[in-house]
Model the fold of this input.
Amino acid sequence: MERTGKKKRKTFTRRDFLKSLGGGAVGIGVASKVLGRESILPQAGPGDPEIFSRKKISLTVNGKSLSLEVDADETLLQVLRDKLQLTGTKRTCNRGECGGCTVLLNGTPVYSCHMLALQADGGEILSVEGLAKGDKLHTVQQAFIDKDAYQCGFCTPGFIMASVALLNKTKTPSPEDIRAALAGNLCRCGNYQKIYEAVSSASETMRRA
Amino acid sequence: MKNRNPIDSSSLEYIELAKIQGTQTKPEKPAAPAEGFKYIGKATPRVDGKKIVTGAARYTHDLSFEGMLYGKVLRSPHACADVVSIDLGPALNYPGVKAAIKLKEGRVKWAGEQVAAVAAVDEQTAEEALKLIKVEYKVLPHVVSVDKAMAQGAPQVQDTGNVQELNKSNRGDVEKGFKEADLVFEQTYVTNWEVHQTAETHSSIAKWDGENLTVWDSTQAVMGVRDGLARALNMPASRVKVIKTYMGGGFGSKLGTQDFTVAAARLALETGRPVKIVLTRRENSYCVGYRPSSRITIKGGVKKDGTLTALSMKNYNSGGTGRGDGCAEPVVDVYKCPNVKVEEYSVFVNTCASRPTRAPGHVQGTFALEGFLEELAAKLNMDPLELRMKNYSIKNVGDTGIPYSTKGLERCYKQGAEKIGWALRNKKPGGGAGKIKRGIGMASQIWWGSGVPGTLADLKIYRDGSVDVECGTQDIGCGTRTHIALVAADTLTLEPKDITVKIGNSDYPWAPNSGGSQTTPSVAPAVRDAAIKAVEYLKQMASKKLNAPPAEIVLENRRFVVKSDPAKGLDFNEVVKDLRRPAVFHGERSSFPATFAFNSFGAHFAEVEVDTETGKIKVKKVVAAHDIGRVINRLTAESQVIGAITQGLSAALFEEKIMDHETGSMVNPNFHDYKVATSMDIPEMVPVFVDVIDDRLNNLGAKGLGEPPRIPASAAIANAVFNAIGVHPREIPMTPAKVLQALKRKEAKS
Done:
């Protein structure tokens, strides 16, 4: 699930990222083991592996520890948006192709539409709602405002999370680093150039701080 | 950079032009004083930026209501079929399903057309229920290929024949013009189906309260959807309210009343509960329109010196089951030419109807016209920019109509050429050495975007000094909230944060839909008008308190002062606290004189590298110079231009809705297979605004910017490819395969 910091290659593209996800194999593999909802699935017999349709998991979301029951086929995105009302994380393609649903799982950017909630069990999630400290915006958020690094704003939370992950790891990113780190996020309004400017300016601000 | 400038600004054309322009640009009477703005024309971050970056901005996708149900639409799998019967029974019996309705009788004409819909307690249940609806179809032959639809014996898509006349016009005598020409040249240019693919998929929530309907819609047109819903549901418009909060992109695909929104309203009525329908990415790819294709043949006659004597254009466009776009406007209007003939036809095929797509018709027409001119310049052995200057017009309809009120295109040419390094292009297309060929090309643009007279805005001043503006417009991502705040604040000498902006509600004062680049030039002048009226009224109040005639009072920096005695003054708040009640000032965008033409202009200059072994194009730099009158906010204006270049690049290199002829369905309905530009594809982009203020146009001299930078973007890139490899691809998207085909064409010729 790593998107950045590959040492062998300078750039890591969106296509590479999709490949690293295994084109959905991760989701399908897990789903077939734990199966889906009770109403449409066969009951487990003696000797069958443990079959369950709901499971209690624990997550730390934006610093808050939570314990909640999730369906076996429920994505992390569904849990965030529908159960926790954290609607800043967007459902844009719902198949791991655009990065609109990017959140950080233990510091690493992941497509939350493409990950089962079960896979995040025990993990620490940071979504766009958890970035600001009270009224004080994260440097990346402020830079997006200052540079007008958005238009409709729908992809913005995903871009911000991917940018934060990059700057957490790479203090002085080159333009190529920024492009590569954001290659898994689509901005249909096409404001990439302003987004680079924002990330680059945020990295300067963070270095000075 | 100076020595790179190929245009000698002392050249005859420029002097002549400057003379004419000098007299042209003078306003008949000066508009309201526009100088001394603190915010207008500067770069100001959006007033709602914090909401966007914290995830607090709520889009239609993000809204939910107590007891809300989720709707899903069953769509036809067949591109053409008669619906024999629909059995909703099994779906209605499925646990969790609250309603199911039929949406189609008779013939479905495209794969994806609505057939039925359900409302259930959650999305998954609704999806499961769709599978239980039994539809019997009588499958009929279909056609999704434009070529095949034009052939004899093709399945008939509509009640008429598949090829229908769309637009015909004629001025002068093209045959005479061709006879006068030293060179006559004809060529065909093709654009394919480009899907909007908005980030937020189309979505609506319908909620009834007795006889009143409220709809939250991801729309570019709260007023239009209000009226559309009232018509569709046969109810009074006064009982329908449409709200748009935040919206994740429209680009023209969210201008109309969506068919599924009507279904949501019907399901909500039947269940007595709010119903939300959110389209999937897949549905968004093939059910909500696209830019119609075009196949434009241009024949042009030209003198040796580059003077155009005649242009004729024939276009076969396809908007699927819809009529598609007329694409002739750039050919008819932008260059001086006495003889022009246009014939345009729509070709019906079995796909969903096309929808307006950022600069409908102009993108396709410009791709053809500007490609043609680039090739013509090469045939004449002439600088392509000189060819355009040679045919520069100062009146509309190819210099045969009324004068443009202002036209800053020559400034765009000059500044754009300077910034791209025009002199460094290949003097002969394809002249460079090596396998990686470099090239520079350009294209011009014309658009309307003057705004809509009659647009209303109410500015309300409260007794505590707070101010709000109500306007039934919508911010579709351009920064309209901020533009309104800037104009109100600058006029009242307040700060943008002091203005509460209330938009996106059909109950507010009327404003047009947000399409056609008309939002800012409609709304900003209406707000300015309301604010000017407020200032006049408050000056009267201040004059009484200050014992000075109103004409003596000026408003400066939040303070009403007596001109002759600036020590005497009252703070804004001290004056407004004497209001008996909150005071509302009605603003209206005025009309403009019919004796002038009002258009926006621009020119893009692109630099590319083409790998002649792989056919891969890398766009290196784009300079986009635009005349949009007064820029309201330089920061959001730059974003518009940068975004439009990106979309133009994306369409030029990647985007195409691909149909499967056997099944009649789209084969790439997702972001993996429908390629759009990513951060890896983006060149250096340089937005330039030439700042020609048009005081006749409105009280701010502002034109719209949504469409203009999208228009020449693909064409300039294609022309740069021509300059690089010496053969024009003549079709977008310019995939590597098409570039290699073009190179083969060149080999065959030589």
Summary: Chain B touches chain A through 57 residues (CB under 8 Å). The longest strand of chain B covers residues 436-447. The radius of gyration of chain B is 28 Å.
